[in-house]
Amino acid sequence: MKFALRLPFVVSSALALSTLLGFGSLASAQDGSPQMNLRRTDLTAGMYRIDTQLAVTPQQREIGLMFRKEMPQQEGMLFVFEQPGVQCFWMRNTLLPLTAAFVADDGTIVNLADMKPQSDDSHCSAKPVRFVLEMNQGWFAKRGIKAGAKLGGAPFAPR
């Protein structure tokens, strides 16, 4: 179960403890302002370029795209986790309809999930992944990008 924001189902005990003690980004998430200044990288999906914000820390992943009222069509957010796991997302405090692409280490899209704004419905990866790319809902479908397609870019380069 996610903890009231944008956390995966499994919450580390350290993060849970820091949240209970009032540390972490819950206060910044509760002020209702979107995070707009995350580090960025370019990804590719076939011939399409994606200007991607990177959510790499627990705090950044927790807030994700909450409170955003708009997002350009070529923009998305890549959630990067330390190790593969079944990643589950919901849409509490998220105003935009989004599609989540659950992505394997090599950039292969494992599965896609359309998500409704302001919903607590869980959307999970079909198998353990380290990456989740959120885009405006319909972006993947309009370009014919489905499960099995490969994304390119630095996060998916061989280690």
Helices and strands, with pairings:
Layout: H1 13-20, H2 26-30, E1 40-45, E2 48-55, H3 58-63, E3 75-85, E4 88-89, E5 98-103, E6 109-115, E7 123-124, E8 129-136, H4 139-142, E9 151-152
Parallel strand pairs: 2-3
Antiparallel strand pairs: 1-2, 1-9, 3-8, 4-7, 5-6, 5-8
Polypeptide structure, described:
The structure is a single chain. The protein has 159 residues and is of the alpha+beta class. It has a single domain (13-156), classed as Sandwich (Jelly Rolls), CATH 2.60.120. The protein is built from four helices and nine strands; from the N terminus they run H-H-E-E-H-E-E-E-E-E-E-H-E. Strands 6-5-8-3-2-1-9 form a seven-stranded mixed beta sheet. Strands 4-7 form a two-stranded antiparallel ribbon. The radius of gyration is 15 Å and the shape is globular.
Give unreliable regions as ranges: 1-28
Q: Profile the largest sheet.
A: 7 strands, mixed
Tally of contiguous helical segments:
4
CATH topology: Jelly Rolls
CATH top level assignment? Mainly Beta
Category by helix and strand content: alpha+beta
Helicity level = 10-25%
Q: What strand line-up does the widest sheet have? A: 6-5-8-3-2-1-9
Distance between the termini: 31 Å
Give a count of the beta strands, DSSP E runs of length 2 or more: 9
What's the CATH superfamily, by name?
A: Protein of unknown function DUF192
Query: Tell me, what's the shape?
Result: globular
Strand residues, percent = 25-35%
